Structure formats: C-alpha cells, structure tokens
Amino acid sequence: MKSSLAERFGTPKPVIAMLHFPGLPGRPRHNRELGRSHLVDVVGRDLEILQGAGVDGVLFCNENDIPYQLVVGPEIPAAMAAVIGELRASVRVPFGVNILWDAKSSIAVARATGATFVREVLTGVYESDLGVIAPAIGDLAGYRTAIGADDVAFFDNISPEFSSALGTRSIADRARSAEFLGVDAVLISGPAAGVPFAMSDLRTAKDAVPDLPVFANTGVSAERLEEILGVADGVIVGTSLKVDGDTWSRVDPERADCLMDAARAIRSRSA
C-alpha cells in the first residue's frame, strides 16, 4: 500500500531541498586532488544548513556531473553511496536519490542507503539534448522488487528538463498514464534546472490526477511558494536556495530560512 505524503515526510505539502554533489569521479568537474573528503564536506555542510532551516526532506543528486549521461558508470553510484553512507547518521529527514539520468542506478543507491524515494524520468519517451530518453518502467519496477526496494517511491518527472515529449500526448495524458502504471508522484519541470515551469502545466497535471501527488520540480522560490502550493502537493527546490541563486554555488542559510519561513506561514494559514 502506498504511503501518503504526510506519512512519508511527516507533513502535507512537503518542501524537499536539493543536495547537489560536486563533480563525481570520472566526470569533467571532479576534483581529483580534493577527492572524497571534499564531497563529504560540501554535501555535509549543505545538509546541516537545510535541516537547520527545517526542510521536510532532501534529495541527493549528481547535478555537477555535466554533461549528463543516460547510463552512468559504476563509479558514480559507488561514490554517491559512499558519501551518503558517511553522512547517514546526520540525516534527520526523509531523503531521496537522483542520478542524472540513470533510473536503475538511482534505485540501487536508494536501496543501499535507505532512501525513501527516487526522482527520475520513469515513463514516456523524450527527445533530449542527451539523446532519446526511453525508460522502461516495467523493467525498473521489476528491478526494484528484485533488490528488495519496494518501499522506495517512484517520483516520475513527466516534463523533464532539456527535452520534449515525442508524439502528441499531452501533460494530462502522460500524468494519467503514469498514475495507471503505478508511480507514487508526478513532477512538473521547466526547461532546465532552476528555470520556472508553466503553472498551466502544473494545473493540468493536478486536474488530470487529483488523487496522485503532483510536485513542482524546478524554479521554486520563496516568492512563488504560495502560488505553487495552491496547486501542487509539494515542491523540490535547489537553485533558489543557493548563494546568489546560482545552481553551482553552495546553499545560502538566509535563502533556506526565507523559503521555510514562507512554507510555515502558508501552512499556518491553511491549518
């Protein structure tokens, strides 16, 4: 039986904050001289700031591994699992895993580390700057069961960044199909990390699947939070929490506090 968002995150309409890894081994941005300790230091610092601000969940992601791959080498999930494992005792909120753009690797790391969800493109077919994204949800669901990870929720990005859907099926059609195929939430994104999505897409998806959680996945900010949570069941936020709103910077404590102050005010008004 699927868990509700309140059961999974301890609150309705959760705010999930991104934990962006520096470049991982084998990728152009990886710093060989600083090595694994640098990964632990950067991710650990941001983790403490975000938890201190009161976020409801965090999402570990290899955002700096550009240009992204549709299938990653074993060094990527190995490095992520090692760092998450070292930080695991400090993680006080539910967390997820996102390896761009390799859903199977994300599921494996989620199982190894105790993550509660993965964020990936799990349904549909998309032409993208990275090549054709064509996940096989049946195979992914079978793999999840085979490794004992059935409790890892599938958060399905149905309007992925850097891409467009092949064919003529609408956002509503893709949302309804994802629900039928058993995902736990659908996500609506803009064209790139930190770029706002179209509110019309968010409303269309929510109208199509009123009983399935729908998340805003990019371009979330404190200023837009009330409008977004008026429709969405939760948000995933990264760029607006960074110093100067720069995706590649570290988390800014003041920005994190501002976002969560806004979230608490919205919740108090709707209580």
N-to-C SSE string, H for helix and E for strand:
HEHEHEHEEEHEEHEHEHEH
Q: Main beta sheet, described?
A: 8 strands, parallel, barrel
Please state how the strands of the largest beta sheet are arranged side by side. Answer: 1-2-3-4-7-9-10-11
Helix content: 25-40%
Number of strands: 11
SSE-based structural type = alpha/beta
Terminal-residue CA separation: 27 Å
Overall average residue pLDDT = 96
What is the overall number of helices?
9
Global Rg: 17 Å
The proportion of residues in beta strands is 15-25%
Low-confidence stretches: none
Shape descriptor: globular
The quaternary structure here is single chain
In short:
With 271 residues, the protein is an alpha/beta fold. It has helices at residues 5-9, 35-53, 75-87, 103-113, 137-146, 171-180, 199-208, 225-229, 253-270, and strands at residues 15-20, 57-61, 95-98, 117-120, 126-128, 131-133, 153-157, 163-165, 185-188, 214-216, 234-237. It is 37% helix and 16% strand.
Which features does this protein show?
3-stranded antiparallel β-sheet; alpha/beta
Can you walk me through this structure?
The chain has 271 residues and is of the alpha/beta class. The protein has helices at 5-9, 35-53, 75-87, 103-113, 137-146, 171-180, 199-208, 225-229, 253-270, and strands at 15-20, 57-61, 95-98, 117-120, 126-128, 131-133, 153-157, 163-165, 185-188, 214-216, 234-237. Helix 2 (35-53) runs parallel beside helix 9 and helix 6 crosses helix 7. The mean pLDDT is 96.
